[in-house]
Amino acid sequence: MRRVLVLGSTGSIGKQTLEVIQRLPERLQVVGLATYRDSETLLAQAQAFGVQALGLLEPPSNGTLAAVRYWGVEGLCALAQRDDVDVVVVALGGAIALKPTLAALQAGKTVALATKEVLVAAGEVVMATARQCNAPILPIDSEHSGAFQAMHAGAPRQVARLIVTASGGPFRTRPLHTFDAITVEEALKHPNWNMGAKITIDSATMMNKGLEVIEAQHLFGLRLEQVEVLIHPQSIVHALVEFVDGSVVAQMSLPDMRLPIEYALLYPDRADIQLPRLRLEQVGQLTFEAPDPARYPCLELAYAAARTGGTMPTVLNAANEVAVRAFLKRQIRFTDIPRLVEQAMAAHTPQPATLENALQADAWARAFLQARLPSPA
Fold first, then answer.
1. Exposure of 275 by Cβ count < 10 A (0-12 exposed, 13-18 middle, 19+ buried)?
2. How many CB atoms lie within 10 A of CB 12?
């Protein structure tokens, strides 16, 4: 029986994680739950799963709750280090998940990582901590889970190239001259995946794919030039690994986050959790195309940040979080997201990648961009 803590239990990934656990009661047990501020959903989940160890990053508007024992980032760090936790699912959106992830690794816990910003903001620090503490990091992200599975076909030194796929988002064929008019509602209509608001916007800009490129570097120990992106509108092939002999191994499945969640929670085992099965004859065709830089400037910004290194990826991520939040609040246009991120990167002097420098760069980028945002409408 693996005892699981879910950080971010009220979000899309968190809820699907609880569904997977519910389908495997003889294999998995929920022992802790935490989220940002949605105390009502958190308490309902706690009652449904019989969980007493609860955490909130922010107090609810109606005051504190007696049932919640762990508060703020430090509280979630303590929750992640509890003796009765085996696996910590990190599904908190954004770089705020960094410290709880490090705390879990330092306690030797297995981390099932859905929050790509953790490795983008401080990948060198996080991976070094995992190695030092002999604590595995297993990806929940569909592309990295696919890559992880495909890489089992060879040794790490035999990997020549990793290709992560992208759906292209809702604007893959939309005329570029209309991008200034893109609305929040249009950007939130992902063609294939059901995800939270922030990652759905990142998918529309393809910043999510840029973050995944940086994450893959750290997670799999690859050079930047070994990680490529292809647009694959059907979202069936999630990753392809090319080996030194030219053989390419692909991982395929229907676009359902419950599969990578199940794989991370049970690894190296698998279980049938009654998911819909892939029928290629029904899919009909699988197509691939190179991303258009003019359509997806955020992808090139991510590559540029990775090439610079140090704290530049931290600034990329933090600036993007602020810009996406402003777009969702209708303070800026869709096309302002890459423009503002580029401004923050241009103004930043990168520092070596340490935890302290990453935290300082994160705070600097947020303040820099916040000062340049228009007032809410």
1. middle
2. 19
For residue 69, give the amino acid letter: R
Structural contact between residues 99 and 16, judged by C-beta atoms closer than 8 angstroms: no
Chain centroid to CA 317: how far?
Answer: 11
> Considering the domain 309-377 in this protein, what is its CATH number?
1.10.1740.10
Q: Which element (helix H / strand E) includes 306?
A: helix 297-308
Domain ranges within the chain, ordered by starting residue: 2-139, 144-255+276-303, 309-377
User: pTM for this structure?
Assistant: 0.90
As assigned by CATH, the class of the 2-139 domain is: alpha beta
Using the structure block, give the residue that is written with the tokens 């859905």. Answer: 114
**pLDDT of the chain along its 377 residues, tens only?**
999 999 999 999 999 999 999 999 999 999 999 999 888 999 999 999 999 999 999 887 666 677 889 999 999 999 999 999 999 999 998 788 999 999 999 999 999 999 988 999 899 999 999 999 999 999 998 999 999 999 999 999 999 999 999 999 899 999 999 999 999 999 998 766 666 788 889 999 999 999 999 999 999 999 999 999 999 999 999 999 999 999 999 999 999 999 999 999 999 999 999 999 999 999 999 999 999 999 999 999 999 999 999 999 999 999 999 999 999 999 999 999 999 999 999 999 999 989 999 999 999 999 999 999 987 65
